[in-house]
Amino acid sequence: MKNLEEQLIGTTWSLKSFESVDQNDHIYYPLGEDAKGFIVFDHTGLFSVQLMAKEALSKDAVAHYRTDVEKAMGMHGYHAYSGHFSLDEEKAVMTTSVYLSLIPAYRGSKQKRSVNIEGDLLYLSNIEHPERKLVWQKNII
After folding, report:
1. What is the chain's percent helix, strand, coil content, to nearest 5?
2. Predicted structure pTM score
3. What CA–CA distance (Å, rounded) separates 91 from 95?
4. Would you say 86 and 45 are in contact if contact means Cβ atoms under 8 Å apart?
5. Which residues of 108-138 are buried (b: 16+ CB within 10 A; e: fewer)?
6. Which is it for the CA torsion 95, 130, 77, 65, positive or negative?
7. Cβ neighbour number for residue 15 with a 10 Å cutoff
8. What is the pLDDT of residues 82-119, one digit of tens each?
Protein backbone atom coordinates (compact mmCIF):
# COMPACT_ATOMS: atom_id res chain seq x y z
CA MET A 1 0.00 0.00 0.00
CA LYS A 2 1.31 3.46 -0.91
CA ASN A 3 1.93 6.02 1.82
CA LEU A 4 0.36 9.49 1.69
CA GLU A 5 3.35 11.12 0.04
CA GLU A 6 3.37 8.54 -2.76
CA GLN A 7 -0.35 9.12 -3.29
CA LEU A 8 -0.06 12.94 -3.39
CA ILE A 9 3.22 13.81 -5.14
CA GLY A 10 2.66 14.78 -8.77
CA THR A 11 -1.14 14.84 -8.53
CA THR A 12 -3.93 17.31 -9.21
CA TRP A 13 -7.34 17.13 -7.56
CA SER A 14 -10.64 18.90 -8.37
CA LEU A 15 -12.90 20.26 -5.65
CA LYS A 16 -15.90 18.05 -5.02
CA SER A 17 -17.23 19.87 -1.93
CA PHE A 18 -16.25 22.55 0.58
CA GLU A 19 -18.44 22.82 3.64
CA SER A 20 -18.28 24.27 7.11
CA VAL A 21 -20.50 24.48 10.18
CA ASP A 22 -21.60 27.76 11.76
CA GLN A 23 -21.93 28.58 15.47
CA ASN A 24 -25.45 27.08 15.48
CA ASP A 25 -24.23 23.76 13.98
CA HIS A 26 -25.79 24.48 10.57
CA ILE A 27 -23.86 23.35 7.49
CA TYR A 28 -22.99 26.07 5.02
CA TYR A 29 -20.78 26.32 1.95
CA PRO A 30 -18.25 29.19 2.25
CA LEU A 31 -18.00 29.53 -1.53
CA GLY A 32 -21.42 28.10 -2.41
CA GLU A 33 -22.48 24.53 -3.12
CA ASP A 34 -21.25 24.85 -6.69
CA ALA A 35 -17.72 26.07 -5.87
CA LYS A 36 -14.90 25.00 -8.17
CA GLY A 37 -11.24 24.45 -7.41
CA PHE A 38 -7.97 22.62 -7.80
CA ILE A 39 -5.21 21.52 -5.49
CA VAL A 40 -1.85 20.49 -6.96
CA PHE A 41 1.09 18.73 -5.30
CA ASP A 42 4.37 18.76 -7.23
CA HIS A 43 7.53 16.66 -7.00
CA THR A 44 9.49 19.34 -5.11
CA GLY A 45 7.10 19.63 -2.15
CA LEU A 46 5.15 22.63 -3.41
CA PHE A 47 1.37 22.84 -3.36
CA SER A 48 -1.12 25.27 -4.85
CA VAL A 49 -4.81 25.71 -4.05
CA GLN A 50 -7.36 27.68 -6.08
CA LEU A 51 -11.01 27.90 -4.95
CA MET A 52 -13.73 29.90 -6.67
CA ALA A 53 -17.39 30.69 -6.07
CA LYS A 54 -19.86 31.15 -8.89
CA GLU A 55 -20.13 34.73 -7.60
CA ALA A 56 -18.89 36.74 -4.63
CA LEU A 57 -21.18 37.09 -1.63
CA SER A 58 -22.25 40.20 0.25
CA LYS A 59 -21.05 41.11 3.73
CA ASP A 60 -24.52 40.27 5.07
CA ALA A 61 -24.48 36.86 3.39
CA VAL A 62 -21.25 35.86 5.15
CA ALA A 63 -22.09 37.37 8.56
CA HIS A 64 -22.83 33.93 10.08
CA TYR A 65 -19.54 32.42 8.84
CA ARG A 66 -17.39 31.23 11.71
CA THR A 67 -13.99 32.75 10.80
CA ASP A 68 -12.67 35.97 9.27
CA VAL A 69 -10.84 33.89 6.64
CA GLU A 70 -14.11 32.29 5.49
CA LYS A 71 -15.79 35.71 5.46
CA ALA A 72 -12.99 37.12 3.28
CA MET A 73 -13.17 34.10 0.95
CA GLY A 74 -16.91 34.53 0.51
CA MET A 75 -16.70 38.28 -0.13
CA HIS A 76 -13.86 37.81 -2.65
CA GLY A 77 -15.60 34.79 -4.16
CA TYR A 78 -12.11 33.36 -4.47
CA HIS A 79 -9.27 31.99 -2.41
CA ALA A 80 -5.80 31.05 -3.57
CA TYR A 81 -2.71 30.10 -1.64
CA SER A 82 0.49 28.15 -2.16
CA GLY A 83 3.77 27.18 -0.58
CA HIS A 84 5.50 24.06 0.70
CA PHE A 85 3.88 21.05 2.32
CA SER A 86 5.10 18.26 4.57
CA LEU A 87 3.39 15.11 5.80
CA ASP A 88 3.31 13.29 9.10
CA GLU A 89 2.48 9.84 7.79
CA GLU A 90 1.89 8.36 11.24
CA LYS A 91 -0.66 11.00 12.27
CA ALA A 92 -2.04 11.49 8.72
CA VAL A 93 -1.47 15.24 9.00
CA MET A 94 -0.30 17.63 6.29
CA THR A 95 1.34 20.90 7.28
CA THR A 96 1.37 23.63 4.68
CA SER A 97 3.76 26.56 4.98
CA VAL A 98 1.90 29.29 3.16
CA TYR A 99 4.10 31.59 1.09
CA LEU A 100 1.52 33.25 -1.20
CA SER A 101 -2.11 33.93 -0.34
CA LEU A 102 -4.94 36.14 -1.51
CA ILE A 103 -5.92 36.54 2.15
CA PRO A 104 -3.10 38.29 4.03
CA ALA A 105 -3.79 36.42 7.31
CA TYR A 106 -2.64 33.17 5.63
CA ARG A 107 0.72 34.53 4.46
CA GLY A 108 3.56 33.08 6.50
CA SER A 109 1.20 30.78 8.39
CA LYS A 110 1.41 27.05 8.90
CA GLN A 111 -1.87 25.28 8.26
CA LYS A 112 -2.45 21.74 9.55
CA ARG A 113 -4.89 19.42 7.80
CA SER A 114 -5.97 15.91 8.61
CA VAL A 115 -5.57 13.80 5.47
CA ASN A 116 -7.54 10.77 4.36
CA ILE A 117 -7.43 9.22 0.90
CA GLU A 118 -10.09 6.72 -0.11
CA GLY A 119 -9.83 5.58 -3.72
CA ASP A 120 -9.85 8.71 -5.88
CA LEU A 121 -11.11 10.99 -3.07
CA LEU A 122 -8.92 13.18 -0.86
CA TYR A 123 -10.48 14.39 2.40
CA LEU A 124 -8.82 17.40 4.05
CA SER A 125 -10.01 18.91 7.30
CA ASN A 126 -8.51 21.93 9.05
CA ILE A 127 -7.18 20.78 12.44
CA GLU A 128 -7.77 24.16 14.12
CA HIS A 129 -11.22 24.39 12.52
CA PRO A 130 -12.40 20.77 12.12
CA GLU A 131 -15.81 22.05 11.03
CA ARG A 132 -14.18 23.11 7.74
CA LYS A 133 -14.03 20.11 5.38
CA LEU A 134 -12.96 19.78 1.77
CA VAL A 135 -13.35 16.77 -0.50
CA TRP A 136 -11.23 16.56 -3.64
CA GLN A 137 -11.42 14.10 -6.54
CA LYS A 138 -8.23 12.96 -8.21
CA ASN A 139 -7.77 14.06 -11.80
CA ILE A 140 -6.77 11.03 -13.87
CA ILE A 141 -5.08 11.69 -17.18
Report:
1. 10, 50, 40
2. 0.88
3. 11
4. yes
5. eeebebebebeeeebbbbbeeeebbbbbbee
6. negative
7. 19
8. 999 999 999 999 999 999 999 888 899 999 999 999 99
